[in-house]
Amino acid sequence: MKVALVDYGAGNVASVERALQRLGVESQRAKTAECLRSAHALILPGVGHFAALIRALDDQGLRAPLLEALRRGTPFLGICLGLQALYDSSEEAPELSGLQLFPGKIEALPANVKLPHMGWNQLSLTNRSRLLEGVAPDAHFYFAHSYAAAAGGGGAVATCTHGSEFTAVLERDNMNAVQFHPEKSGAAGAQLLQNFLRLAA
């Protein structure tokens, strides 16, 4: 299976590569439209600023082929900022349009809690989840973010709370995304990645 990591310059690409290697899966970095078109599965890692991701996708001509691949049904996993990019826009860079696959705006977490939300936290399952199959209900995942999608939107199957409740896991058709970092989440994160690879096979 040809797993492509959308490489727009995110800092966590190498750690996602290593997490996949531990599962016995080789990946390639996709920096061109052709790489996105030929991939059997796509992962969009993300750390940093919403504007950096969106501008990089646009500057490198990757927005249109990425959307084409998703509309064709290519299995997709967005990680952290890779989840936020699926929405219409973000308060972090309101002048830019996201991929507009899910309605709504990414919002800042409340200022009355420590930001960024950094470290381990638990999920609350709101619907049956294919990504979390076999993961213990009390499992902890590693988060590192200051912005999030509000809980309750379409596609959300699990939430987390830090100051307010937000979407932690999205699943709709071939599209999957998580606000946390499975590549840094130990055995639970490895199980989630394994589940995605199984779905994509």
In terms of topology, how is this protein built?
Elements (H helix, E strand, L loop, with lengths): L2 E4 L6 H10 L4 E4 L2 H6 L2 E4 L5 H10 L3 H10 L3 E4 L1 H4 L2 E4 L11 E7 L8 E6 L1 E2 L14 E6 L1 E2 L7 E7 L1 E9 L2 E4 L7 H15 L1
Parallel strand pairs: 1-2, 1-3, 3-4, 4-13, 5-6
Antiparallel strand pairs: 6-10, 7-9, 8-11, 11-12, 12-13
Characterization of this structure:
The chain is an alpha/beta fold. It has one domain (3-200): Class I glutamine amidotransferase (GATase) domain (Rossmann fold). Helices cover 27% and strands 31% of the residues. It has six helices and 13 strands. The chain has helices spanning 13-22, 33-38, 50-59, 63-72, 81-84, 186-200; strands at 3-6, 27-30, 41-44, 76-79, 87-90, 102-108, 117-122, 124-125, 140-145, 147-148, 156-162, 164-172, 175-178. The protein has an eight-stranded mixed beta sheet with strand order 2-1-3-4-13-12-11-8. A hairpin with a 2-residue loop joins strand 12 and strand 13. The longest helix has 15 residues, at 186-200. It is globular. The termini are close together. The mean pLDDT is 96.
